[in-house]
């Protein structure tokens, strides 16, 4: 129940007493764990928050194909190439489920994609970093998909039905992604040359902190968290999820025989969690502003793909229209 919620962070959540009758019924439904479906009444701000989060999530899946797409032609074996292609295709599918879930809220896919192309929409900061060597494919699968799973497993219980159901399917595929990434690194560490082992450590050094940033700003600096938690769109806070990710990832890191680029990372007997160093939030906000190493390149690539594919979509639509007309004429 959120009647007792008090002001913390930068945005205040209404108490039950302050809500309109419709808002109160809505909140009670959410509190009773009844899923909200597209045709149900919902506060405008709930709808807006979902369109914001789901569209950002969909854009992340689609832009997230690019750093890996960079390595399809250079995968070391046919098996690795097939696995990588399957993974990238999965991300495209995730984007489609998510754009569809977003459309159930009345948002337009074309308009949201246009915002992405104009640099007005966000997508996960992690995809603005380059993938420089093959072991980055392992580190992306292990760390990036690993972080995504921690966040998405919880989102399976999000309050909006279509988003929650999309997450169930996505999570199944993400587990395969995480394992294929870890296996790439494990093979390089077990059977690789000294140079290949150094590549693995280099990938971890570059992607460790950006992976931790995927969970978003710390709770006290997260303007959307409090309301999203009250509406059960988010079920755990940014900091809670980040800590869960670190706790489950460090033993895997040790098993690999690698280290994190964080001298403050150590097990804390008292809390039962790993302590870790300060995240460089100035880097995070620079990437969000569009100043990461690859922001411009990513948007330009997406825009080019959409522009160059326009004729295919137009041809498919013309064919579908023609087929429908024929069926109508025959009826
Ligand atoms: N990057 O108030 P906060 C994948 C923004 S892809 C960029 O905490 P919220 C994969 C945030 O949007 C999986 N922006 O926000 C694909 C907000 O901006 P606005 C990606 C970020 O929404 C291919 C502002 O900062 N996963 O798995 O309550 C290959 C303040 O933050 C980031 C998802 O999208 C960030 N890292 O919480 C491989 C998960 N963090 O809109 C793998 C779904 C924060 O107010 N999203 N911002 O201007 C969520 O769970 C939540 O939206 C977040 C942020 C936890 C990310």
Tell me about this structure.
The chain is mostly helical. Helices cover 65% and strands 2% of the residues. The chain has 12 helices and 2 strands; from the N terminus they run H-H-H-H-H-H-H-H-H-H-E-E-H-H. The chain has a two-stranded antiparallel ribbon with strand order 1-2. A hairpin with a 4-residue loop joins strand 1 and strand 2. The N and C termini lie far apart (56 Å). Benzoyl coenzyme A binds next to helix 2, helix 6 and helix 9.
**How large is the count of helical segments?**
12
Q: How large a portion of the residues is in β-strands, by DSSP E? A: under 5%
Q: Spell the H/E element sequence.
A: HHHHHHHHHHEEHH
- Sheet with most strands: 2 strands, antiparallel
State the assembly state of the protein chains: single chain
Q: List all distinct small molecules, including ions and cofactors, that are bound in this structure.
A: benzoyl coenzyme A
Query: Largest beta sheet: what is the strand line-up?
Result: 1-2
The total beta strand count reads 2
Residue share in helix: 55-70%
Low-confidence stretches: 1-10
For the CA atoms, what is the radius of gyration?
22 Å
Shape: globular
Q: Give the class from helix and strand content and strand pairing.
A: mainly alpha
Q: What is the terminal separation in angstroms?
A: 56 Å
**Mean pLDDT rating:** 95
């Amino acid at each position: 129940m959120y009647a007792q919620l008090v002001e913390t962070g930068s945005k205040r959540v209404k108490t039950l007493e302050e809500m309109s009758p419709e808002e109160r019924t809505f909140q009670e439904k959410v509190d009773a764990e009844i899923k909200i479906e597209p045709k149900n009444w919902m506060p405008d701000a709930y709808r807006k928050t979902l369109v914001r989060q789901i569209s950002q999530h969909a854009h992340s899946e689609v832009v997230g194909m690019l750093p890996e797409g960079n390595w399809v032609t250079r995968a070391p074996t046919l098996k690795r190439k097939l696995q990588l292609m399957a993974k990238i295709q999965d991300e495209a599918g995730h984007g489609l489920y998510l754009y569809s879930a977003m459309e159930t809220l009345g948002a337009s896919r074309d308009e949201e994609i246009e915002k992405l192309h104009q640099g007005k929409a966000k997508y996960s900061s992690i995809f603005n970093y380059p993938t420089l060597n093959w072991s980055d494919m392992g580190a992306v699968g292990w760390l990036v998909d690993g972080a995504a799973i921690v966040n998405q497993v919880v989102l399976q219980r999000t309050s909006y039905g279509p988003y929650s159901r999309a997450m169930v399917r996505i999570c199944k595929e993400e587990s395969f992604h995480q394992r294929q990434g870890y296996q790439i690194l494990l093979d390089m560490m077990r059977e690789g040359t000294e140079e290949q082992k150094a590549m693995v450590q280099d990938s971890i050094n570059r992607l460790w902190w950006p992976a931790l940033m995927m969970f978003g700003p710390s709770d006290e600096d997260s303007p959307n968290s409090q309301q999203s938690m009250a509406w059960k769109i988010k079920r755990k806070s940014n900091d809670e999820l980040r800590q869960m990710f670190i706790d489950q990832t460090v033993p895997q890191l040790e098993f690999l025989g690698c280290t994190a680029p964080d001298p403050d990372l150590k097990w804390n007997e008292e809390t039962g969690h790993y302590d870790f160093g300060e995240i460089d939030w100035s880097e995070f906000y620079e990437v969000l502003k569009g100043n990461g190493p690859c922001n411009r390149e990513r948007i330009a690539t997406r825009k080019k793909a959409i522009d160059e594919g326009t004729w295919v979509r137009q041809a498919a639509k013309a064919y579908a229209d023609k087929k429908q007309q024929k069926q109508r004429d025959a009826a």
